[in-house]
Specification:
It is a single chain. By secondary structure, the chain is mostly helical. It folds into two domains: 3-57, Multidrug-efflux Transporter Regulator, Chain: A, Domain 2; 84-135, no CATH class. Helices cover 60% and strands 3% of the residues. It is built from six helices and two strands, in the order ααββαααα. It has a two-stranded antiparallel sheet with strand order 1-2. Strand 1 (30-31) and strand 2 form a beta hairpin. Helix 1 (3-10) crosses helix 3 (41-55) and helix 3 crosses helix 4.
Length: 143
């Protein structure tokens, strides 16, 4: 099948398919006499696998490792589990950081009158300016 059909079947855009080929995430497909790419069902399955892993937050290097494990009949599930748990831990750290940023923004928004005056504790906090005593704002949490 051509790249358009492979894209529709896998849910991966043609642009991403070409990118995955260029970085070696998927092998280059066979070429027709016309020079067009000719994707097999196995290629589409591999693309779906990569897309599913990407949707779970795995970066390219880990998707490459997962693909290697998927193709390895001698793999141990503990290797796969280790990758999944490490990714889950990283996502947890990111979720905590996002929650902290959200909390800071909500706190700053609560301290902003939102009126016609130009003074704004949100802008003051983002700029790092010292807030006036009437506009006490929280500082961003340390990274």
């Amino acid at each position: 099948m051509n790249i358009g059909k492979a894209s529709r079947a896998s849910g991966v855009s043609g642009r991403m398919i070409r990118h995955y080929e260029s970085i070696g995430l998927i092998p280059p497909p066979a070429r027709r006499d016309s020079g067009y790419r000719d994707y097999s069902d196995a290629d589409v399955h591999r693309l779906r696998f990569a897309a599913n892993a990407r949707d779970l937050g795995f970066p390219i290097d880990e998707i490459r490792e997962l693909l290697s494990l998927w193709e390895d009949d001698q793999r141990t599930s503990s290797d796969v589990k280790q990758l999944a748990l490490a990714r889950a831990a990283e996502l947890g750290r990111k979720a905590e950081a996002l929650a902290a940023m959200r909390g800071t923004l909500l706190d700053l928004a609560a301290k902003c009158h939102g009126g016609d005056r130009p003074d704004c504790p949100i802008i003051e906090s983002i700029s790092g300016a010292s807030p006036s005593p009437a506009n006490q704002t929280c500082r961003f949490p340390a990274p």
